[in-house]
Amino acid sequence: MTYKLLTIAGSDPSGGAGIQADLKTFSALGCYGMAVPTALTAQSTTGVTGVHAVPAEFVTEQLETLLADVRVDAVKIGMLANADIVAAVADAVEEYELPNVVVDPVMVAQSGDRLLAAEAVQALRSRLLPLAHIVTPNLPETADLLDEPEVHDLAAMADQATRLLELGPQRALVKGGHLSGQSSTDLLAVPGAAPDSLSAERVATRNTHGTGCTLSSAIASLLPQRPTVHEAVRDAKDYLTQALRRADELNVGRGRGPVQH
Ligand code: PLP
Q1: The predicted structure's pLDDT at residue 35
Q2: Which of 12, 103, 214 to mutate to test the pocket of ligand 1 (most atoms within 8 A of CB)?
Q3: What is the distance in A from the centroid of ligand 1 to the CA of 214?
Q4: From the candidates 38, 211, 214, 237, which is the catalytic residue?
Q5: CATH of the domain at 213
Q6: How much is the pLDDT for 222?
Q7: 54 CB less than 6 Å from ligand 1?
């Protein structure tokens, strides 16, 4: 059985992040990939020079046309650009009762460029997080979602991961890549228990463009294929580690290049 995966996210012409990274990940993990773009970016490996958001009504039209025809098995939601698009996507997730919804709350690119209007964070929090089967913020995104300062140690990260569940997602994976250390540790918060810790080797490469997109789309690909969320996240993390290990085989651009799927 080939699972059908949908990404609702921004376009990255350099192919390292956004819907391009998601579609490569879906294929590499044996799924059939579909994509509803929410924004075009003008982007290379060195940064983003412009963002052209799709009108929210046209995001709705893309979703309704597709979902009236195709039953999807999992959805990855990434860059949403503004509050109107957040609402359009949340409406479609509710209307079509989409399963296995992975929300990657993309706010700012590693290059420092903003990918979500600051005033849209509240819409993300109130409309989309309650619909998420799992939300996958890094530490700065976690701080923004909770409206608290960014934390710098595992104990404080565990506390924030647990409190993210109060915003409504069924699971919260807080990614600790911004902490220092030899390994990169993420915490998976589940209701009623202490968060699970998942560690992976920290791969030494500067080619880390699109790692967040790749991890969230790998989780979406594996949720229908694994018996538990924990196993889907663990295997998605392994997939990202392999892709990072092979990243230096590629020679794309002069900035932070993509990982190799
Ligand atoms: N461009 C798009 C369309 C994205 O969705 C994202 C991240 O989610 C990025 C760029 C940023 O990627 P990175 O922060 O890994 O450079």
Answers
A1: 99
A2: 12
A3: 10
A4: 211
A5: 3.40.1190.20
A6: 98
A7: no
Give residues with Cβ within 8 angstroms of 172, minimum separation 6.
134, 135, 137, 161, 162, 164, 165, 188, 189
Q: How many domains does the chain have?
A: 1
Given CA atoms 110, 113, 118, 123 in this order, what sign does their dihedral have? negative
8 A C-beta contact, residue 197 and residue 2: no
Ligand 1 atom at shortest distance from the alpha carbon of 12: 3
Asked whether 141 lines ligand 1 (CB < 6 A), one says no
In a domain, 19, yes or no: yes
* ipTM, 2 dp: 0.93
Is 261 inside any structural domain? no
pLDDT mean for each 10 residues of the chain (261 residues): 97 98 98 98 95 98 98 98 98 98 94 90 97 97 96 95 98 92 92 94 92 98 98 98 95 94 96
The question of whether 31 is a catalytic residue gets the answer no
Instruction: Return the sign of the alpha-carbon dihedral for residues 95, 72, 109, 232.
Output: positive
